[in-house]
Write a structure and sequence with these properties.
The structure is a single chain. With 566 residues, the protein is α+β, with helices and mostly antiparallel strands. The chain has 16 helices and 25 strands. The strands form 6 sheets. Strands 1, 2, 3, 4, 5, 6, 7, 8 and 9 form a 9-stranded mixed beta sheet that branches. Strands 10-11-14-12-13 form a 5-stranded mixed beta sheet, sandwiched between helices. Helix 6 packs antiparallel against helix 15. Residues 342-452 and 557-566 have low confidence and may be disordered. The structure holds adenosine-5'-diphosphate (ADP) and magnesium ion (MG). Residues 30, 34-35, 38, 59, 61-64, 72, 78-80, 94-101, 142 line the site of adenosine-5'-diphosphate.
């Protein structure tokens, strides 16, 4: 065994870079976070070739003193904490002092900076090798250019995807910080084109923040957002504030990437909070669909440990339980007082909305479902009303009757083959033969064809309860319908190119950055199934044709998201 040696700093930095710098988007994230920490009110981000060729971040923050430029790119050198104790009182986004050193070890980095009271200076680092610091004329603030990322680590370079995909990740990283810091004016420029320009707004001004969300994600999504707010005062008097928006169930995704949780100015992923969110929407979304949210949580820094993930994408909450309850409670009571049907949610406060007298079937249904559970939850207020915590929130849930006394009869419909049960999608019966024994339905007996053959009743216009030889089976009628459509589509795609219908005027569709990148990357495949797509700038794509098969529903109602609201 060779003797043990302490590794030289350059090697240490490259090892750290392996954790911190995964792709251009990681560089963008770290550098924007540094700019935010510097107190900048404006941050301009420019990338070329998805950031692999160039990432440039210009800020008007406090700047770095000329004599500290070298320290800034030294590993574990930071101006943000001074002792281990401060690790639990972190008020900045960075604190490890390793980002610049790591990035500089795997790229060609230029750091130019000036403080208000000093002279400007520039430092160039190529693959970790520093050039001497030289004077440079520049405005107050910092400009960092990172060129040719991974030029000296070919293995990493191989893992970079197309510029399209990388720029999708960059936009996502940009979006996450931009959402968390509405007080900063951000711009993003790619290939010389201004992709986003987000003027600064008051931190507390939720409506202005919604504008920012609309700019980033499109007006359709922003229009479906429901505002939520609550404050929970913990035992030791610490206030935990929740504020932001959740989307009406008309807007959902098959993934959780559109769940933006911003904790003390940091976008994080948190399984527990995602679960609370899922619970709040239980029964409002189809299986497999995930809610969308833009939620800001602020709490004293000692309640959250940010030092648990190399890229700080996750945090650990000191008291995860109350936080879970606060989120779930806030959303549930909001939903109980909101008509989510139209996609442009109106709070149906007692006197205000005319809809309060005739709440939609969905609201009824959601209230029944929630009513059964709410009283057992920890977040119940003293009067048995759901509440977001002792601090309370503005919207009180209207009193609702327990299920048994709503007076609404349980709708039971008998149906058999060829006889359409009221409310059952007619396609269910017409096409169920074609799907027997398909994958996903393990055997003939469990196939949807059996539904048509056996004795079945329909409950709540939603579930089929079917008699089988072994006992009974409950089938989610909508899932069945989707499956049938899927099988139809699959059979047609396998049989040859799908018949397509061209749109006279191509339809712009706003997507999230990652969705846009994914869709554009799979353009060819989508083309094969009749959906022709072109880039339209930013995260918008143009749809110019669609499969004739979908002509009835196309663009008016996205297939999966139209139910149970149609
Ligand atoms: P950290 O952010 O964890 O402190 P970094 O390696 O990202 O570590 O940055 C090292 C130091 O360089 C920071 O602590 C800060 O003092 C300085 N610095 C980096 N970027 C900027 C910037 N844009 N403006 C002012 N100072 C900066
Ligand atoms: Mg940093």
């Amino acid at each position: 065994m060779p003797s043990i040696l302490a590794l030289p700093p350059l090697v240490v930095n490259k090892i750290a870079a392996g954790e911190v710098v995964e792709r251009p988007a990681s560089v963008v994230k770290e550098l924007i976070e540094n700019a935010v920490d510097s107190g900048a009110t404006r941050i301009d981000v420019t990338i070329e070739k998805g950031g692999a060729e160039l990432v440039r971040i210009v800020d008007n923050g406090c700047g770095i003193a000329a004599e500290e430029l070298t320290l800034a790119v030294t590993n574990h050198a930071t101006s943000k904490i001074r002792s281990a104790e401060e690790l639990f009182e972190v008020h900045t986004l960075g604190f490890r002092g390793e980002a610049l050193a790591s990035i500089a070890s795997v790229s060609r980095l230029t750091l130019r900076s000036r403080q208000a009271e000093g002279d400007g200076a520039e430092l160039v680092v190529n693959g970790g090798a520093e050039e001497p610091v030289v004077p440079a004329g520049c405005p107050v603030g910092t400009t960092i250019e990172v060129r040719d990322l991974f030029y000296n680590t070919p293995v990493r370079q191989k893992f970079l995807r197309t510029a399209q995909t990388e720029s999708g990740h960059v936009t996502e990283a940009f979006t996450r910080v931009a959402l968390a810091h509405p007080e900063v004016h951000f711009t993003l420029t790619h290939k010389g084109r201004l992709v986003h320009d987000l003027p600064a707004c008051e931190e507390e001004d939720l409506l202005a923040w919604r504008e920012r969300i609309a700019t980033l994600f499109g007006d359709d999504l922003a229009g479906a957002l429901v505002q939520v707010e609550s404050e929970d005062v913990r035992e030791k008097g610490e206030a935990v504030r929740l504020a932001g928006f959740v989307a009406a169930p008309t807007e959902s995704r098959s993934h959780t990437k559109m769940q933006y949780l911003l904790v003390n100015g940091r976008a994080v992923r948190d399984r527990s909070l995602q679960h609370a969110l899922g619970e709040a929407y239980r029964g409002l979304l189809l299986t497999g669909r995930r809610p969308i949210c833009f939620l800001r949580l602020s709490m004293p820094p000692n309640l959250v440990d940010v030092n648990v993930h190399p890229q700080k994408l996750e945090v650990r909450f000191a008291e995860a339980g109350p936080l879970y309850s606060q989120l779930l409670g806030t959303l549930r009571s909001k939903f109980l007082s909101t008509d989510l049907r139209s996609g442009v949610p109106n709070a149906t406060s007692d006197e205000a909305s005319p809809e309060a007298d005739t709440p939609s079937e969905l609201v009824h249904w959601a209230q029944r479902g929630l009513a059964k559970e709410a009283p057992q939850r920890r977040f119940d207020g003293p009067a048995g009303e759901p509440s977001g915590g002792p601090g309370g929130h503005t919207d009180r849930a209207p009193a609702f009757k327990p299920y048994a006394t709503t007076g609404e009869p349980l709708s039971l419909h008998r149906f058999s083959r060829g006889v359409s049960g009221a409310g059952a999608p007619p396609e269910t019966h017409r096409t169920s033969d074609s799907v027997s024994g398909t994958e996903g339905f393990p055997d003939e007996e469990k196939s949807p064809a059996h539904v048509a053959a056996g004795k079945a009743i329909q409950l709540h216009n939603r579930y089929l309860v079917v008699e089988t030889e072994a006992g009974l089976e409950i089938i989610d009628q909508h899932a069945l319908h989707e499956r049938v459509l899927y099988e139809q589509l699959r059979a047609k795609v396998l049989a040859g190119p799908l018949e397509r219908q061209r749109l006279l005027v191509p339809e712009p569709v706003d997507l999230s950055p990652l969705e846009a990148a994914a869709v554009l990357e799979e353009r060819e495949l989508l083309g094969k199934i009749g959906i022709e797509i072109e880039p339209f700038g930013g995260d918008t794509v143009l749809v110019s044709s669609f499969p004739t098969l979908l002509s009835k529903r196309w663009l008016q109602q996205p297939l999966c998201e139209s139910w149970p609201l149609n």
